[in-house]
Design goal:
single chain, 84 residues, mainly beta, ATP Synthase, domain 1, seven-stranded mixed beta sheet, 7 strands
Amino acid sequence: MYLEILTPDMKVYKGEVTSATFPGTDGSFQVLNNHAPLVSTLAKGIVEYQDKDEYYDIEIDGGVVEVLNNRVIVLAEAIIGEED
């Protein structure tokens, strides 16, 4: 599935992943290939995702995620700990 993580200032990540885990406002949840469509708000926390070779995680300060047709778009308020 294709994952894109955006903030108001930049595109943080775009590419194919095998799984992604999000800090939903009602608890964390995971999205895999062929997941049912959904839109969810995100709390401050860690977004974890894995491509075929590596595992990544970034801390966000809340946002929204949309899952539709194996395309996952994250609109994060900000990335925490990011150096300018």
